[in-house]
Amino acid sequence: MSKRILVIEDQEDNRQILRDLLTSADFEVIEAADGETGLAAAAAHRPDLILMDIQLPGLDGYEATRRIKADAVLRVIPVIAVTSFALGGDAEKARAAGCEAYIAKPYSPRQLLAKVREYLPEATPMR
Known about the structure:
This protein has 127 residues and is of the alpha/beta class. The model has no long low-confidence stretch (mean pLDDT 92). A five-stranded parallel sheet has the order 2-1-3-4-5, sandwiched between helices. It contains five helices and five strands. Helix 2 packs parallel to helix 3. It starts with a strand and ends in an 8-residue tail after the last helix. The longest helix is centred in the N-terminal third of the chain and has 13 residues.
C-alpha cells in the first residue's frame, strides 16, 4: 500500500514538480494550495507525511504547522518544510513551529526523496 503525502504549496509549478517526483516514487499525492485548505485536507485524509511550503497566502506554513501539531489526531504526522524562504534562522523557526525537517529550494529530487523516506522508512521501494 502506497504512503499518502499531502503537498501544501501555493505555486502550481512547484506542486507539479513534487507531484511528478512523488508519484514516480509510488507515493499517493494529495494537494492543497493554501494553509487553510491544507489543514482541511490533513484532517480529511490523514496523510502519512506533509510537505509544507512556508510562504502561503493567508495562513502561512508556520501557523498551519502549529495548528496541525496542536491537534491530537494530526500531531503524529511528520511535517517537512520545503521553501525558498531560506534565510538564516528559518530552519530553526520551522522546527520551532513543529516541522521535523527543513529543505531549502532549489533542492535535488534525490535529496527530497531521501528526506521523505527518512520519515517514512517502510515506504522504501523493494528493488
